[in-house]
Amino acid sequence: MSQYETILVEQRGAVTLVTLNRPKALNALNTQILSELLDAMRAFDEDASQGCAVITGSEKAFAAGADIKEMQAQGFADMYGHDFFAGWDAFTRTRKPVIAAVAGYALGGGCELAMMCDFILAADSAKFGQPEIKLAVSPGMGGSQRLTRAVGKAKAMEMCLTGRMMDADEAERAGLVSRILPAAELLNDALKTAATIASMAPLAVKANKEMVDVAYETTLAQGVQFERRLFHALFGTQDQTEGMAAFVEKRSGIWTGK
Ligand code: CO8
């Protein structure tokens, strides 16, 4: 069903599975993969039958960074003038949850893409890094900011300044990934986790995602206030009435998304 060249998109029930598919370049992120991924995410967000997405790569690489060969000949005027890669910001405006299922290398833009997802499930083979400094540049898709928020200044600073990689164990200890799985179980677990999320009431899913994200953008008092207001708002939904009735009647809720 996929009309794309650099990604594969499949619907598995209510879960959209997106597989980055530039194996010869270890899924390096070029302009085409960005535009195809954004198109696929827009379609996913608009499709009422879909509740959660999983983005994955290959066994060897989730993505080994932005495409160095595409960037190599660019100068400041090209990069700044065209606000190169600003398009990735649209990815973070996806309102339904997106899970990154990472095996192998997630480097540079690959690590940044994984961090733009709502959470990361890692195979035991996963390796995360921001090696841009070795190319005499820096993260450019949010890595210096999201990595610092995820793992704290000490580790983020060391990784950005040395370009060293973090293995899955260290990434889990540091809070970069939510769980580690044996590589052979990664995709199945990610799809099961996504199916669980997709089985929840859709408005509550959006609200929960939004309020956790707000924790990164605001003060504690404003964040708590934001949470409370959205919590109150959910009491205006049919699904809240159904969810609480179903609990009391010891049955599963049937959601309308209203
Ligand atoms: N871009 C383009 N091609 C790549 C990339 C990449 N990031 N990574 C790997 N490839 C290509 C290789 O060139 C090679 O192609 P070919 O067969 O034609 O020579 C093929 O993929 C296989 O790679 P290797 O032979 O190198 O495989 P190894 O197993 O020996 O090594 C590594 C794997 C360690 C992952 C190695 O490929 C590597 O170090 N890759 C580069 C990692 C890197 O530096 N990533 C950061 C890129 S910069 C970046 O992401 C900036 C993000 C923000 C930009 C935003 C701008 C505004």
From TrEMBL:
GO molecular function, one term: enoyl-CoA hydratase activity
EC number: 4.2.1.17
Family: Belongs to the enoyl-CoA hydratase/isomerase family.
GO BP, one annotated term: fatty acid beta-oxidation
CDD domains: crotonase-like
Enzyme class, spelled out: lyase
Annotated protein name in UniProt: enoyl-CoA hydratase
Entry-linked NCBIfam families: PRK05862.1 (NF004517)
Pfam families: ECH_1
Keywords, comma-separated and alphabetical: Fatty acid metabolism, Lipid metabolism, Lyase
Source species: Sphingomonas xinjiangensis
Catalytic reaction list: a (3S)-3-hydroxyacyl-CoA = a (2E)-enoyl-CoA + H2O; a 4-saturated-(3S)-3-hydroxyacyl-CoA = a (3E)-enoyl-CoA + H2O
Record's function text: Could possibly oxidize fatty acids using specific components.
